[in-house]
Amino acid sequence: MANTVRNNTLRTLASRNLAGRPVRTGALLAVVTILALAFFGGTMFTMNLNTGMTSMERRLGADLMVVPQNTAQKAEALLTDGNPSTFYFTKDIVAKVKQADGIAQASEQTYIASLAAECCAEKLQIIGYDPATDFVIEPWVASQFDGTLEDGQMIAGANVNVSTDGTVELYGRRWSIVAQLAATGTNLDNSVFINLNTVPEMVAASAAVSQRIMPEEYAHKAISTVLIKVAEGYDAQTVAERIKDLDPSFTQLGYVYPGGITATTKTALNALVTYLAVFVAAIWIMGVIVLLAVFASSVNERKREFASLRILGATRGMLASILLRESASIGLIGGVLGVSIASLAIFPFSTLISRQLQLPYLQASLPAVFGIMILTVLCAVVIAIVGSVIVLVRVGRPEAYLVLREGE
Amino acid sequence: MARDCQQKLRVSTMNALRKREEVMKNKLFASIPNIVFGALLVIAPQTFAHACGAHDGMMPACHYSQQAATGIGAVILVLGLVALIVDPKVRIGLNIAAIANTVLLFAIPTVLIGICKGAMMHCRAVMLPTLIVLGVLVVVFAVLSIVFDTRSSKRA
């Protein structure tokens, strides 16, 4: 009976200590919450950027893109996070470009910027590709659609509004969607993919609603880019030079190197991640110092409290248990609070964050998110316990009677 | 004898002060969050977390969700103001009403009226998350306030 009472008292003493000192508890909680928030927020942010970068690298399968004069920037924007655009040259140029040395694979694509698909939807990038020669889109699409993309059919990116009947309305016509792709964190999420034979149909549909996207005579021969995979032993710049050698007018064409874009984006991303890591580290260093200071400042007032408990018969083990329960509770509550606050900012606003960053930003997988959540709470608990050890060492040392007489 | 009486008086005065402090704390806890978040729910949809513009002269669904969210924010704000002048038991009721209003706030853009479908549209990227975050905060503080007020009502 006496043991049960004693255990119950010890069990509740920690929580009553916390409730009895609201200012001290609040200060410790605030510090642990900020530490957890910074750790979880920073890690999630970094992880989402890395997931976006990996996704972007996977989607850019070509080594070189040949595009019309003065459109290289538009083409680069298509690969990263720019606005949809329409640009084209003619098929005869494509045929000549393909004759250059050092080309292992070449495939053409046509880019058309739609008007807003329906009321309350944003503009879409329509990408026409040739399933027979394509080596960029098909490998990516294959995991989610293994059929053949027929004329008049579409594959939709992750952000495209597909109606419940599996169609999208564009230029007054409903187009059948055969598959919707997973999010990539790039502009491709706002794109629909059609085969090149569907481009004239699209042009005709746009003309029918008085929103012609290109002149009638170009409908069957408009190509926006030639995507090139270079042969072994060649680099993209060399192949670009070979193409320019084919015809003097080809020097005017735009040459885009997706590998270079990836490298540039990676540099920007690495800089951002480094700043973030330094910021989180600084917050952690300051937070740990504040935490230790708060614990250390509580040592003197607690010396008498623990001395009284010792006189009442509490062993050193019991005191340690009370202290550890207190600090673990603070770590747990602070950790959960920090994770919750950071989650309220990161998850609902992920689209806005992605839009503002102009970098590939893709939500990490659920198991990874839960893993980081658990790790953050664990770190918060550990840091709070480590902080309390300072109190434990100092209150455990002197004799109870002497401590009680201190200051008399 | 006199010392005993003095001691009892001191204890009862301390208890009364402590109780008054707790009542005041609970009152502020039950009202301030609702006033602040209610005001933000009124201001946000009309300013930075606004709905999308008209398309071909037609107002999109998010416009009506925005107007309804503003109205709900005003109701939560009033509930917070009333909580400043009423008893703990009434405050419990007011906070239950705030939670019910927040459920309505969540239902309006998602089920009852809706917003634009495009993932990158302003209403979906900014308005909806703002409403959700403010709504979650209203619910969290209302639940805590109900717990505190229930506890102090039982003690009284």
From TrEMBL, chain A:
Keyword Transport: yes
Location relative to the cell: Cell membrane
Keyword list, A-Z: Cell membrane, Membrane, Transmembrane, Transmembrane helix, Transport
Cellular component, GO, one term: plasma membrane
Pfam families (alphabetical): FtsX (PF02687)
Membrane topology note: Multi-pass membrane protein
Domain ABC3 transporter permease C-terminal: 278-391
Domain of life of the native organism: Bacteria
Coiled-coil ranges per UniProt: none
InterPro entries in UniProt: ABC-4/HrtB_transporter, ABC3_permease_C
Transmembrane intervals: 27-49, 272-295, 331-349, 369-395
Name of the protein: ABC transporter permease
From TrEMBL, chain B:
Stored Pfam families: DUF4418
Transmembrane regions listed in the UniProt entry: 28-48, 68-86, 98-120, 126-148
Statement: the UniProt record of this protein carries the keyword Kinase: no
Family matches, as InterPro entries: DUF4418
UniProt KW Ribonucleoprotein keyword: no
Keywords per UniProt: Membrane, Transmembrane, Transmembrane helix
Name of the molecule in the record: DUF4418 domain-containing protein
